[in-house]
């Protein structure tokens, strides 16, 4: 009887131990596994942390690069978590072959050496004159737009509408940089600027944007990871994201190259403004986002329905049109990759020039931005040559095309995807 009871107890313990292994969530950071099972629920960056609990993923560079501005706080959180050393067997059995493991080690060493060089040279330091210039530019568009849009002249109304559209589009670049905490370099101030601009000017929630954008930023063009690939039912940037053949032959997908600018942009921004962002701000209890988003509709009342919709549509064309140029036509992946490989294999730069740097808010340097997200974007031209040399040393591509060719590639890709789905 006692022997049977002991055996039964041992069996229960084995089951509980197995269940614990199944439910425990760990991330690999600098050679140690950290238990984030409970922390996942509180992670401010959202679901992205779960991606790094899967086999083959190393969170080291993602944590270092995303949280550069708050490293002390993040390390404090890491120290509070249970950790264990990763065994050599575990490191060698992450679903990667030895050649890949050794290649990644070499790439990591060179990448971190470059990052330390840039850090010591002050490349991570923001510029107050630059920030002031960008905010004054937005103030100019706002003042001009709000004044002209209420005039009786249709011409002046049109110029005012264009000015307010530029406010939304150009404001988006500032919001983007504030979201990466690389605008002023002060996380609390950048967070406020992000919430205020994105809410008041765009009618959208800054915290929701950050949680989603980080997923794209960490794993660009990775299926089921990069939210920028979740564009169905209106768009399909790659045939591999369309699982339902009937959907691939739908009106929207088959005509996506023609509908993208005139229709998809306004449909997406309406969906974001009227449903997705308000819902998530309420769910997250993001009261600052909700406050600034409510002020956005003061603009609608002030300028009137038609100018408001026109401004929203033109602003969406500006933003979405530029965002499609650096990723959407490049290959997708389903496999874990090195942080630097994501940035070089699935990202493309647009040739720099005075007008293009201004028009795209320095996000024409997408490669540099993806691998060094906390470096102020106006410094990207200063580091591009060294990033290119890093790519060449490790046999990785460094793509850079003219703005015109990038537009052509993006729209040709939409046509080719539609054609493949039609005949597939």
The count of DSSP E runs of length 2 or more, i.e. the number of strands, is 5
Portion in strands: under 5%
**Secondary-structure-derived class:** mainly alpha
Q: Helicity level, as a percent range?
A: 55-70%
Distance between the termini: 66 Å
Biggest sheet strand order reads 1-2-3
- Tell me the major beta sheet: 3 strands, antiparallel
State the order of secondary-structure elements, H for helix, E for strand: HEEHHHEHHHHHHHHHHHHEHHHEH
Given the C-alpha coordinates, what overall shape results? globular
- List the total number of helices: 20
- Rg, rounded, reads 24 Å
The chain-level mean pLDDT equals 90
- Ranges where pLDDT stays below 50 over 5 or more residues in a row are 7-19
Secondary-structure blueprint of this entry?
Layout: H1 2-23, E1 26-29, E2 32-35, H2 48-51, H3 60-66, H4 71-80, E3 83-85, H5 88-92, H6 98-120, H7 128-148, H8 154-179, H9 187-200, H10 206-218, H11 245-248, H12 251-254, H13 256-284, H14 287-303, H15 305-323, H16 339-345, E4 349-350, H17 354-359, H18 366-371, H19 380-393, E5 400-401, H20 403-423
Parallel strand pairs: 4-5
Antiparallel strand pairs: 1-2, 2-3
Description:
With 424 residues, this protein is mainly alpha-helical. It is built from 20 helices and five strands. It has helices at 2-23, 48-51, 60-66, 71-80, 88-92, 98-120, 128-148, 154-179, 187-200, 206-218, 245-248, 251-254, 256-284, 287-303, 305-323, 339-345, 354-359, 366-371, 380-393, 403-423, and strands spanning 26-29, 32-35, 83-85, 349-350, 400-401. Helix 7 runs antiparallel to helix 8 (154-179) and helix 14 packs across helix 15. The longest helix is centred in the middle third of the chain and has 29 residues, at 256-284. The radius of gyration is 24 Å and the shape is globular.
């Amino acid at each position: 009887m006692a022997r049977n009871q002991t055996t039964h107890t041992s069996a229960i313990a084995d089951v509980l131990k197995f269940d614990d292994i199944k439910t425990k969530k760990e991330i690999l950071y600098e050679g140690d596994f950290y238990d984030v099972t409970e922390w996942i629920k509180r992670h401010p960056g959202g679901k992205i942390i779960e991606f790094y609990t899967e086999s083959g993923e190393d969170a080291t560079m993602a944590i270092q690069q995303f949280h550069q501005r708050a490293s002390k706080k993040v390390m404090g959180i890491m120290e509070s978590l249970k950790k264990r050393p990763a065994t050599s067997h575990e490191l060698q059995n992450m679903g990667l072959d030895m050649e890949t493991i050794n290649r990644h080690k070499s790439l990591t060493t060179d990448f971190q050496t470059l990052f330390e060089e840039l850090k010591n040279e002050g490349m991570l330091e923001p510029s107050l004159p630059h920030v002031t210039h960008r905010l004054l530019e937005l103030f100019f568009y706002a003042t001009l737009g709000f004044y002209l849009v209420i005039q009786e002249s249709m011409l002046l109304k049109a110029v005012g509408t264009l000015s307010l559209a530029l406010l939304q589009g150009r404001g988006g670049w500032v919001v983007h940089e504030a979201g990466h905490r690389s605008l002023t370099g002060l996380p609390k101030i950048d967070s406020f600027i992000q919430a205020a601009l994105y809410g008041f000017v765009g009618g959208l929630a800054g915290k929701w944007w950050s949680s989603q954008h980080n997923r794209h930023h960490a794993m660009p063009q990775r299926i089921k990871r990069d939210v920028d690939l979740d564009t169905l039912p209106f768009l399909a940037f790659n045939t591999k994201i369309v699982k339902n053949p009937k959907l691939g032959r739908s009106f929207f997908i088959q005509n996506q190259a023609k509908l993208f600018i005139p229709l998809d942009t306004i449909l997406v921004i309406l969906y974001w403004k009227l449903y997705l962002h308000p819902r998530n701000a309420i769910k997250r209890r993001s009261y600052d986002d909700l406050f600034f988003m409510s002020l956005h509709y003061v603009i609608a009342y002030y300028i009137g329905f038609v100018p408001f919709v026109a401004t929203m549509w033109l602003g969406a064309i500006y933003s979405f049109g530029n965002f499609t140029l650096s990723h959407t036509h490049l290959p997708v992946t389903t496999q874990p990759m090195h942080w630097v490989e994501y940035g070089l294999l699935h990202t493309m730069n647009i040739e720099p020039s005075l007008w293009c740097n201004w028009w795209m808010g320095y996000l024409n340097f997408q490669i540099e931005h993806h691998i060094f997200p906390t470096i102020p974007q106006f410094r990207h031209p200063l580091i591009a040559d060294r990033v290119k040399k890093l790519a060449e040393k490790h046999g990785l591509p460094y793509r850079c095309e003219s703005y015109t060719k990038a537009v052509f590639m993006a729209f040709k890709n939409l046509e080719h995807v539609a054609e493949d789905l039609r005949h597939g």
